[in-house]
Amino acid sequence: KGNSPGKGTLPNSERLTADEIRCQGCLSQDQFIYCKKCEIRACTQKRGYQGCHQCDEFPCNHIETFPMSVGKRVILRAIPYRREVGTEKWVQDEEARYTCPQCGSKLFRGAMRCNRCKTQVDLD
Question: How confident is the model over 66-72, as a mean pLDDT?
Fold first, then answer.
């Protein structure tokens, strides 16, 4: 809690702890409060898809109007790449992308530096 950089981007997020903002992924049952209302997630579930990479309508209005600019940028980068290389390679590459090259800590999308070692990163 407090005045950490990035806090307050989502309404009322400045009151949340890091543990309350945890994300286990779009397909998990343990979702951040805002993710429970995600139109993209609801759309893929309704269509029986694991993700937008399976949809011929990508990028659709759900993507174009996604309210988080970093998230939208990641979606527009990651989905075409997932289609190109397949899910297994995409997962490997995303895990590598979001790992600090200096200390190996996990990084969050939009991070500008590693929280542990402070190494600058250019993720998204």
Answer: 88
Written as one string, the DSSP assignment of the chain is --S-TTTTSSTTGGG--TGGG----TTSSS--TTGGG-HHHHHHHHHT-SSGGG-TT-S-HHHHT-S-HHHHHHHHHHHHHHHHH-HHHHHHHHHHHTB-TTT--B--TT-SB-TTT--B----
Residue ranges making up the domain that contains 33: 1-37
Whether 61 and 99 map to the same domain: the answer is yes
- 59/85 same-domain check: yes
Tell me the one-letter amino acid at 91.
Answer: V
pTM over 0.85: no
Contact 46/38 with Cβ under 8 angstroms?
A: no
Give the tokens for residue 24.
């286990």
| pLDDT of 9 higher than 70 | no
